[in-house]
Design a protein that fits this description.
Phosphatase 2c, domain 1; five-stranded antiparallel β-sheet; rod-shaped; 439 residues; 11 helices; alpha+beta
């Protein structure tokens, strides 16, 4: 969010929002594409096996070919199924007729089996693929459909060459039906359980996303939207673009008895946890509005976040820069392990504003320093995510300071940082706070 105000006019400018959004429809689109191509992938495997079976039976002398026309008719049916699956991939609406493809496979395997020795054929096992294909669909009826398909596969030889089957052959066929029915039942149950787990995971995800959206809304509402109430000689500009929906960076400003207070903080980490700590630090600092020393605000924030002896080992800390500017341009500031704040003089000279103090959650004591601002001076504080926009290496801070030298206008400076952040995929939150004295 970017906030500005025109002190000369005495009224705040319209607030403009910089929204960092990611396209959450990507996984849905990918899943839809995979679903549309799934029949083609399945049928390609079945077709490849049937073609390989027919080719090997033709070329290898120890494999029997009892009816070449039936065998190749099975290959043709498999290829027709492959064309149908390709059509479904090209036109997703055609997927409503997906059942036709495995139905063709059952007949194709039956013809292949009849043409390669009937009961002596070694290729009946191919029928398990369309069985699993149908049984994996939801619904108990999809156990019966593969059973009917297997029955059709086994009955193809009796249709093409009617004979009186022997008792042993009937027993073998019934046993095969039972085995494939069991395969379909197990596959259908596993698919059902997987679907239930997927539904539960999706429900949990929706709940989590809803909570994160609410947290992001709360976090955005904590950022200042106007500079109304600040001294006329002070203008403030800020932008915060989180790497995720909820970030650990924050900035704030508020009027004090003799001027205004400004803070930029960076909580280690990202996500809801970091956002909660950022909100806590902001609230405690705001509660010290009557304190003239910004170091007092940092000490109270540290006390408010302290949880005991485990603080130093918890790995959670917050760096921040807090400055209070009075109407005469006297700036009292404290740097709690942040080290990413610079003072840009009106003549373009840039010098750092940092100290040796430790971050909140690590350090135990902080003291403030004083800097006198001249008309046209700017205090610019950024989070480490901004340095990623300038290379992210050891020289990134120097490049950023050179960049600040060429940006005398505070509004343009903040807007250009936001533009840089929108042009690249930044892994960390990008936050800038610019305080201009009599610009």
């Amino acid at each position: 969010m970017t906030s500005t105000a025109d002190p000369a006019a005495g009224t705040p400018r319209p607030v403009s929002w910089t929204v960092s959004a990611r396209d959450d429809t990507g996984p849905i689109v990918v899943s839809a594409l995979r679903a549309s191509w799934a029949p083609l992938a399945k049928q390609a495997v079945v077709t490849a096996l049937i073609v390989a079976a027919a080719a090997s039976s033709t070329l290898l002398p120890w494999l029997v070919v009892t009816d070449a026309s039936s065998m190749w008719a099975g290959v043709v049916l498999a290829l027709v199924g492959l064309v149908g699956a390709a059509a479904m991939a090209r036109w997703p609406r055609a997927a409503r007729a997906e059942l036709i493809v495995p139905a063709l496979d059952f007949l194709a395997v039956g013809l292949l089996r009849f043409g390669t020795g009937d009961s002596r054929s070694v290729f009946l096992a191919v029928v398990v693929l369309p069985v699993i294909w149908i049984a994996a669909w939801p619904g108990r009826r999809n156990i019966v459909l593969p059973l009917v398909g297997v029955g059709a596969t086994l009955l193809v030889p009796f249709v093409l060459a009617p004979t009186r089957p022997e008792t042993s052959e009937l027993v073998r066929l019934v046993f095969a039906l039972v085995v494939y029915a069991a395969t379909a039942a197990v596959t259908n149950e596993l698919a059902r359980q997987a679907g239930l787990r997927l539904d539960q995971a999706q429900r949990r995800r929706r709940v989590a996303e809803s909570e994160i959206d609410r947290a992001a809304l709360v976090q955005r509402s904590l950022l200042p939207t106007t500079t109304a109430g600040l001294p006329a000689d002070v203008r403030a500009f800020g932008v915060c673009i989180p790497a995720r929906t909820v970030g650990g960076d924050f900035y704030d400003w508020f009027p004090t008895a003799d001027g205004a207070a400004f803070i930029l903080g960076d909580v280690m980490g990202k996500g809801v946890g970091a956002g909660m700590i950022a909100a806590a630090v902001r609230s405690v600092v705001r509660s010290t509005v009557d304190e003239a020393d910004p170091a007092v605000a940092v000490r109270r924030a540290a006390a408010g976040l302290a949880t005991g002896a485990s603080d130093l080992t918890s790995g959670q800390f917050t760096t921040c820069f807090h400055v209070r500017v009075d109407a005469g341009g006297r700036a009292r500031w404290v740097d709690a392990g942040h080290g990413l704040t610079v003072l840009r003089r009106a003549d373009g000279a840039v010098r750092p504003m940092r100290s040796g103090h430790l971050p909140i959650g690590v350090g135990a004591d902080w003291s403030s320093e004083t800097t006198d601002l001249e008309p046209g001076d700017m205090v610019i504080s950024v989070s480490d995510g901004v340095l990623d926009l300038f290379g992210g290496d050891l020289d990134a801070l120097d490049r950023f300071e050179d960049w600040v030298t060429r940006h005398p206008d505070p509004q343009r400076l903040v807007d250009d940082v936001a533009t840089l952040a929108d042009q690249v995929d930044h892994p960390d939150d990008v936050t800038v706070l610019c305080v201009a004295y009599r610009p």
